[in-house]
Design goal:
Number of strands of chain C: 0
Radius of gyration of chain B: 19 Å
Chains: A mainly alpha (444), B alpha+beta (267), C mainly alpha (56)
Oligomer: heterotrimer
Largest sheet of chain C: none
Shape of chain C: rod-shaped
Number of helices of chain C: 1
Strand order of the largest sheet of chain B: 8-1-10-9
Strand content of chain B: 5-15%
Number of strands of chain B: 10
Helix content of chain C: over 70%
CATH architecture of chain B: 2-Layer Sandwich
């Protein structure tokens, strides 16, 4: 029924099966939307946040998905600015994943504010010295960049591409994509950093506070670096999951291995910087405030944060995946690669978790004890919402758009190859005007 | 004009004598009444209770018969930040400029109609003085008639906190202006908690004005501030003869605690 | 966001922050204007060309 919309030369499941899958995701999405509406109509009393936990699950989700979505800006930077050609085979998917992550983050932020109708105050009455202002501006503008990067992909849909204006628009956008990618990298550097700055500047909160350079605490640089390191890991992880679900190879191993190698070295350098930062914080910054590392990671009543979480974040989620990814064996061995990218994602999520939730759990005044919190179902449902939304958008994009340029080559359909080529040639003839090149370098 | 002597440049602050405080809670009641602070039907979950000033109960951690108790009232500390530039933990982070440091008074204000409820200020404040309106305020029937007309009630979804009864400062200034005076006297501007304290544990005034009682009190060797090592520069000082109480005001390493104890013995 | 907001101050913080912001916005705005404008122009030229072909 929808075969006219499906890219030529690729196989997709039946429409019925597809709709069944979308409905299943839609059900989870609907629960999230219901919870979201409850929060908007009834207020944040629907959550289990409290005066000690002003930030909670949502802010962690924001920080985590933006870090994981960092694959878009960093892969874009590598592809368009550094000029690594092989990455053209995964950049589309990186952009799509980034688009999903950033739109989800913006949605969660919109739920997370007490007066959603005043959300625009952050732009209008901006306090330029606040890290959150920087986050809001860069996040929104970078989301616009991601949309611009995603649009040409949508325009490459078989039906849409037949409309000359859209074909030309897509072609033009591809031509100057490097400019957009550079702007995106510039914005990403600042918003990934300022997300790190959100906790790093809190000089009243010893767990999060870090010294730094000028107005930027060290966490500013650590967050940018870690997002650039782990973002590509998440892109690979989602690609691998997509390959498992579709039972197809979609991206060639050399592309994955190259991205994994870059990610591995980024992760290794990040984790060295993180270790230095942790050492300096534990043995210089904290004692200056009258605190020791043992007070941050403790089994005091109310605390669930022992040294185990530091070990999980730095060793299991940092050193181990970094060491796997920098070795050729680690990148080429399928199981090792799966383990490494998964651990890297867990590591960065743990880092974002401690910088939001452990920071707030820890009492600062000596006569207070550790604060506890467990999210309400509304918080959990709205946090799962982006997962369902992401699955839907990926499914639709995969079905109707030429996301994976190598898919046809890797999954030839016996007997159809010749036919496809003929049809394509005819289609091109229809569109061919003067010296106009194909709309995308990746479509053919 | 010389700074600090009945000028328009003030640094309002408080000195609370913890050895006088009996923990009666009159300051909390007075504050809630004065500032139209909302409350819930069920206030058992204190972590969502709005208390502009809250009395904490401290103990020295020793078993009977050496147990000692101290009550510590904690209003907003109105932090000046390093160099008195208003770089207080909360003001510096508010993305919408909804909280401001008054360079003329040293009072940290909260603009309820500007706040959009991101709660970053709550996260930034180590003293937990900031409270979020998780619900719209609901008053028992007839109680609306007893609300103070000088303080606006707050809507759901915004942050609120102690303002050092700023409306009283405004009223005092207006009165002085009408009477042709340029400035106000110490007694003309006092917070509700200060006046309500039956033990007279709270003293309020201009910290940089030698004519005000707080000027001398804050220089006492027994004076301390909460978490002063974090360099928040609070404008609320506490007094206590007891070393353990003074030590409870901040975090100290074990060797620092030993040194402080030894210094006390020598003194 | 704009200088007419009452909390606006002409200081280094505002120069740097808003300088960066408006620089990025300008590039994005100009880039998209160029893409859309050129696409419209190209489409018109192509249509004109194809009409001429039909006449011949």
């Amino acid at each position: 029924m929808d075969s006219d919309l499906i890219p030529k030369g690729v196989q997709r499941c039946s429409l019925g099966k597809f709709l069944l899958w979308i409905s299943a995701c839609g059900f989870v999405l609907a629960i999230g939307v219901y919870a979201m509406i409850l929060c908007w109509l009834k207020g944040l009393n629907q959550t289990n946040m409290n005066d000690a936990y002003g930030f909670a699950l949502w802010i962690w989700a924001d920080l985590a998905i933006i870090a994981l979505g960092g694959g878009a800006f960093f892969t874009g930077f590598l592809r368009y600015i550094i000029g690594i050609k092989e990455l053209k085979n995964i950049i589309n998917y990186a952009v799509l994943i980034g688009f999903i992550c950033y739109s989800s983050a913006l949605l969660i932020l919109a739920i997370d504010i007490g007066q959603p109708l005043r959300g625009w105050f952050i732009f209008w009455h901006a306090n330029v010295h606040s890290m959150l202002t920087e986050v809001a501006f860069c996040l929104t503008v970078y989301f616009a960049v991601l949309t611009i990067e995603y649009i040409p992909l949508v325009l490459e849909n078989r039906k849409i591409d037949k409309i000359p204006f859209f074909h030309n628009l897509s072609h033009n956008m591809h031509e100057i994509m490097a400019v957009f990618a550079a702007t995106g990298a510039f914005l990403s550097f600042f918003h990934q950093g300022s997300l790190g700055g959100v906790a790093g500047v809190l000089f009243g909160r010893p767990f999060g506070f870090r010294e730094g350079i000028l107005i930027w605490p060290w966490t500013f640089f650590l967050f940018t670096w870690s997002a650039a390191a782990v973002g590509p890991c998440f892109t690979i992880l989602i690609t691998k999951i997509t390959e498992k679900v579709t039972r197809k190879k979609l991206v060639k191993d050399n592309v994955i291995e190259l991205l994994a190698k870059i990610s591995g070295w980024m992760l290794l350098t990040y984790i060295i910087a993180k270790l230095i930062d942790t050492y300096y914080w534990a043995f210089h910054t904290a004692p200056g405030m009258g605190l020791t590392l043992a007070q941050f990671y403790t089994s005091d009543p109310g605390s669930v944060y022992g040294y185990w979480i530091l070990f999980l974040e730095v060793v299991i989620g940092g050193i181990v995946p970094a060491l796997i990814l920098v070795t050729k064996f680690g990148r080429t061995n399928k199981i090792a690669l799966w383990i490494a990218i998964t651990l890297a994602c867990i590591g960065i999520c743990t880092n974002r978790w401690v910088m939001v939730l452990q920071l707030l759990a820890m009492p600062v005044m000596t006569f207070q004890s550790w604060f506890t919190y467990f999210p309400s179902w509304q918080e959990i449902a709205t946090t799962i919402l982006p997962v369902a939304y992401g699955a839907i958008l990926i499914s639709i994009s995969y079905r109707y758009l030429p996301i994976f340029p190598q898919e046809r080559e890797l999954n030839p359909i016996p007997g159809e190859e010749a036919e496809v080529e003929t049809v394509e040639k005819e289609e091109k003839k229809e569109l061919a005007t003067g010296d106009l090149s194909p709309a995308t370098e990746t479509a053919t | 004009m010389e700074k600090g002597h009945n000028t328009t440049f003030k640094r309002y602050g408080m000195v609370i004598d913890l050895d006088k405080c009996t923990g009666c809670g009159a300051c909390m009641v007075a504050c809630m009444q004065e500032n139209n602070v909302p409350f819930k039907k069920d206030e058992t979950d204190k972590i969502r209770s709005i208390t502009w000033i809250r009395v904490y109960k401290l103990n020295n951690g020793k078993p009977y018969p050496d147990t000692e108790i101290c009550y510590l009232p904690r209003p907003c500390q109105h932090c000046s930040g390093m160099g008195d530039h208003g770089h207080s933990p909360c003001v510096s982070v508010c993305p919408a400029t909804a909280t401001d440091y008054g360079m003329d008074t040293g009072i940290v204000s909260q603009i309820y109609t500007r706040c959009f409820g991101c709660r970053y200020c709550m996260v930034a404040c180590p003293y937990h003085v900031r409270h979020f309106n998780w619900w719209d305020p609901v008053w028992p029937e007839g109680m609306e008639n007893y609300l103070s007309p000088n303080v606006s009630v707050r809507m759901r979804g915004v942050v609120e906190k102690c303002s050092f009864c700023y409306h009283r400062y405004q009223l005092a200034r207006e009165r002085a202006f009408v009477q042709g005076r340029k400035d106000i006297e110490e007694h003309e501007y006092q917070t509700a908690c200060t006046q309500a304290c039956p033990a007279k544990a709270i003293t309020f005034g201009d910290l940089i004005n030698p004519a005000h009682a707080v000027y001398e009190l804050k220089n006492s060797p027994n004076a301390f501030q909460l978490l002063e090592r974090l360099q928040t520069y609070p404008k609320v000082y506490y007094l206590s003869d007891r070393l353990w109480v003074r030590m409870a005001g901040d975090n100290y390493l074990e060797e620092e605690k030993r040194e402080m104890a030894q210094a006390k013995i020598k003194r | 966001m704009f200088p007419f907001a009452f909390e606006w101050i002409w200081d280094m913080g505002h120069y740097v922050f808003h300088g960066g912001l408006w620089y990025a916005l300008s590039i994005i705005g100009a880039g998209m204007t160029y893409c859309i404008g050129k696409a419209a122009y190209d489409t018109l030229i192509q249509e004109k060309g194809s009409h001429e072909d039909e006449h011949h």
